[in-house]
Amino acid sequence: EVLISLSDISKTYIMGEVKVEALKATSLEIYQGELLVILGPSGSGKSTLLNLIGGIDTPTSGQMLFGKALLSNGREKDLTRYRRQEVGFVFQFYNLIADLTAAENVALAAELVAEPLAVDDVLRDVNLWERRDHFPSQLSGGEQQRVAIARAMVKSPRLLLCDEPTGALDFETGKMVLRLLRDIQKNQASTVIIVTHNTAIADIADRVLRMRSGSVAEIIINENPLPPE
Ligand code: ADP
Ligand code: ADP
């Protein structure tokens, strides 16, 4: 079942005289419940594609559907609702609020949606119950990323978007975070999209999309995705 479809979506950044075609007319369907990994070198348009899918950014042209709803209708209100209710974001550098505790960071996100999960349950799911009253500066990178994942998951989003989620973590910690993301995809039937330049992460994906110079160079279907050990 198709969750999101992009038709001829493009994004051009204009800086004075300079135009950057970050994404060239791209068509793509994203399926309910899949784990999609987006690979490609730096500057190939991965983050641009992810930000468009997440409604953080709007396309220069083209059409984007969420289920049957048209997201590329130019109405900021619809896009904001979609981004808040349906999408969870996980970033490389966690983007936690420094003067809120782990639990408060998660609770703040819960306030944005109509039917959040219980903050305590989500903190237990990411194995951070004991650390719930710690501030980000008192947590390791892996723990901070787990808070960020909890903050995304408390909204019970249809779509979890992760931009280099292991980019700031050591190898073992990164694997733990990937395992958690895979568990979320499997257990909550969430659609998970991971942007990375780490080709090793492709092994856990249902599909791998390779970007090159603002275009989708290829899509590979992985019949037997491997668990991250
Ligand atoms: P990736 O995530 O693969 O590294 P990006 O999507 O971040 O690639 O960038 C694609 C291209 O768009 C690059 O040339 C980048 O410099 C440019 N770009 C990205 N964001 C902006 C922006 N806000 N303003 C101007 N150019 C941008
Ligand atoms: P990059 O990976 O391209 O260096 P980030 O992953 O930090 O950058 O952010 C990607 C995009 O998401 C940026 O356009 C940024 O403005 C936006 N962004 C960053 N943090 C948040 C947040 N907490 N909520 C919503 N959007 C955010």
UniProtKB/TrEMBL annotation:
Which PROSITE patterns does the protein's record reference? ABC_TRANSPORTER_1, ABC_TRANSPORTER_2
- Residue span of the signal peptide, if any? none
Q: Which CDD domains match?
A: ABC_MJ0796_LolCDE_FtsE
Does the keyword field hold Membrane? no
Q: Name one GO molecular function term.
A: ATP hydrolysis activity
| Keywords per UniProt | ATP-binding, Nucleotide-binding, Transport
SUPFAM superfamilies named among the record's database cross-references = P-loop containing nucleoside triphosphate hydrolases
- Per the record's keyword annotation, is ATP-binding included, yes or no? yes
| ABC transporter domain location | 4-229
Which InterPro entries does the UniProt entry name for this protein? AAA+_ATPase, ABC_transporter-like_ATP-bd, ABC_transporter-like_CS, MacB-like_ATP-bd, P-loop_NTPase
Q: Which domain of life is it from?
A: Bacteria
Q: Which GO terms describe its cellular component?
A: membrane protein complex
| UniProt similarity note | Belongs to the ABC transporter superfamily.
Q: What is this protein called?
A: ATPase
Species this protein is from: Syntrophomonas wolfei subsp. wolfei (strain DSM 2245B / Goettingen)
